[in-house]
Design goal:
heterodimer; A: 114 residues; mainly beta; four-stranded antiparallel beta sheet; B: 112 residues; seven-stranded mixed beta sheet; 54% strand
Chain lengths: 114, 112
């Protein structure tokens, strides 16, 4: 079945450091890939997505490229801020047809210190 | 994208009782998905709810414990029955609308 593997956290970085959170997936066909963010005490928010190979999703300085050859969708940001402290979830959907739920990775907690 | 109103946002319940969580969507959707997020964990799919038929449950979740209703294309409820402290979690509903997935704000349940 479909699955997502994320790097274990927590990750602690200083402000303005470079961030990478690794995500790899196992899926049949051509899944769509997502990164969601959950800020402390808040609900899930879509951060970015990519629906086909070589697509790059980007938002708020974060970006991730859909790499079919390595089945990866790593999240990167060039310079993190304290306000980026949150839990980040990588997820996939086999088809965005309205009938298929998202499959989530375990989440990676990021703490950014000033 | 769709907007989901989920209620209640949080509750503290006595063990042995039941809690019903509601999700109202501002547009018609085919499927609604219910997830559980245990403390410090990822989201686990409980079931998929289609209007007019019984929900489909994932392994480890049963209808007697988590009955779901889906009376129309904009509304669904999840009941957590005969609660125990192990049921303390955040429960979320989700739908596909437009080009992506939308989540309710979650129900933070504490069972004492």
């Amino acid at each position: 079945g479909n699955s997502v593997t994320q790097m274990e956290g927590p990750v602690t970085l200083s402000e303005e450091a470079f961030l990478t959170i690794n995500c790899t997936y196992t899926a049949t066909g051509y899944p769509s890939l997502f990164w969601y963010v959950q800020y402390p005490g808040e609900g899930l928010q879509l951060l970015l997505k990519a629906t086909k190979a070589d697509d790059k999703g980007s938002n708020k300085g974060f970006e991730a490229t859909y790499r079919k050859e390595t089945t990866s969708f790593h999240l990167e940001k060039g310079s993190v801020q304290v306000s980026d402290s949150a839990v980040y979830f990588c997820a996939l959907s086999s088809i965005i047809s309205g009938n298929t739920p998202l499959v989530f990775g375990k989440g990676t907690r990021l703490s950014v210190i000033a | 994208s769709a907007v989901i109103s989920q209620k209640p946002s949080r509750d503290i319940c006595q063990r042995g009782t039941s809690l019903t969580i509601q999700c109202q969507v501002d547009s018609q959707v085919t499927m609604m998905f219910w997830y559980r997020q245990q403390p410090g964990q990822s989201l686990t799919l409980i079931a998929t709810a289609n209007q007019g038929s019984e929900a489909t449950y994932e392994s480890g979740f049963v209808i007697d414990k988590f009955p779901i209703s889906r009376p129309n294309l904009t509304f669904s409820t999840l009941t957590v029955s005969n609660m125990s402290p192990e049921d303390s979690s955040i429960y979320l509903c989700s739908v596909v609308a437009g080009h992506g997935y939308t989540f309710g704000s979650g129900t933070r349940l504490t069972v004492v």
